[in-house]
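Tokens as discussed.
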């Protein structure tokens, strides 16, 4: 990581840094993250019992009376039965579908440039509050593969788009900057493995109010047109690891061709009901224009899902450390801690 500058580019002049308060706040957030990591770890261990594939696949026969099941807790049995769809059944028939239900390759939960609906209220390192939001979506257009949203097998063509904006609460919610992203991913899933070959365009823009109030600031024309090859694998029904590499065939405004993204995430697979379930996500993003530095994002909290493989709503804490996620300020170091609300397709 680059050393932080004396003052944030987005922060107004004269705002002092208060290391003691910042470190205390960081300590509390990291302690909360550790507690949630431990809780998620306990859930993963329990999941190895709950989602035993050999027992889950036999449940239909067991419930139909094909053989007498051994004594089992009713809640455990119900949990296993509703999660049979979490299993990667490669024997399901494939068929053509227009606007299919669900996705093969889901957005990374802690990826700062992924299309979703979300909003984050964060405190930046110099005691300045920021409001970052993402207004976007990723949807399937055509699929040749299995029907339904759960552990989809087959090929799929998606479209994605998002506007990622930053507003300044201290300046009447002025728009500081906006990054726009649009793309077309071609995805494939088989078993627990998914891959994507995608194109996306990203461009960065300063807000009108920010330019008016900061006439001396020079806008950069940051642009990337990128080909991405990504890989994703579900180690468990609720635990996913991923890696992707992107190469931009056109760049401007200081951008350079290569970027790499990787991480892990734990989130509920089955319907959660109103009680919800914990989630945890960590993402790293490295970029060539930053000498292969970049940022680290960690998110943890509570999530809700209404159907297996369907959309996921989350609320939780976020910690961000690295170069700014707003690419108009891509050389500026930021450390953020705050709360977020996200809806992932």
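Sequence:
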């Amino acid at each position: 990581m680059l050393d932080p500058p004396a003052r944030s580019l987005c922060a107004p002049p004269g705002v002092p840094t208060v290391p003691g308060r910042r470190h205390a706040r960081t300590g509390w957030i990291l302690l909360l993250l550790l507690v949630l990591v431990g809780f998620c770890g306990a859930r993963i261990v329990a999941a190895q019992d709950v989602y035993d594939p050999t027992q889950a696949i036999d449940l239909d026969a067991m419930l139909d009376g094909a053989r007498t099941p051994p004594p089992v807790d009713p809640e455990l049995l119900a949990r296993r039965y509703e999660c049979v769809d979490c299993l990667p059944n490669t024997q399901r028939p494939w068929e053509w579908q227009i606007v299919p239900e669900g996705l093969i390759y889901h957005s990374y939960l802690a990826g700062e440039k992924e299309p979703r609906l979300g909003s984050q209220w964060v405190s930046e390192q110099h005691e300045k509050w920021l409001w970052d939001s993402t207004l976007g979506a990723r949807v399937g257009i055509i699929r040749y593969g299995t029907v339904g949203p759960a552990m989809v097998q087959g090929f799929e063509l998606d479209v994605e788009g998002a506007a990622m904006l930053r507003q300044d609460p201290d300046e009447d919610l002025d728009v500081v900057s906006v990054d726009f992203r649009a793309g077309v991913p071609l995805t494939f899933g088989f078993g627990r493995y998914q891959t994507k070959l995608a194109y996306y365009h990203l461009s960065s823009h300063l807000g009108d109010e920010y330019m008016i109030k900061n006439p001396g600031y020079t806008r950069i024309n940051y642009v990337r047109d990128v080909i991405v090859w990504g890989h994703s694998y579900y180690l468990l029904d609720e635990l996913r690891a991923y890696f992707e590499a992107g190469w931009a065939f056109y760049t401007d405004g200081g951008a350079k061709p290569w970027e790499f993204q990787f991480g892990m995430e734990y989130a509920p697979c089955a319907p959660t009901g109103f009680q919800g379930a914990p989630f945890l996500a960590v993402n790293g993003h490295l970029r060539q224009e930053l000498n292969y530095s970049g940022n680290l994002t960690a998110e943890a909290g509570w999530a809700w899902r209404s159907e297996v493989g369907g959309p996921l709503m989350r609320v939780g804490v976020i910690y961000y450390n690295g170069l700014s996620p707003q690419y108009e300020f891509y050389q500026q170091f930021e450390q953020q801690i705050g709360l977020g609300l996200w809806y992932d397709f």
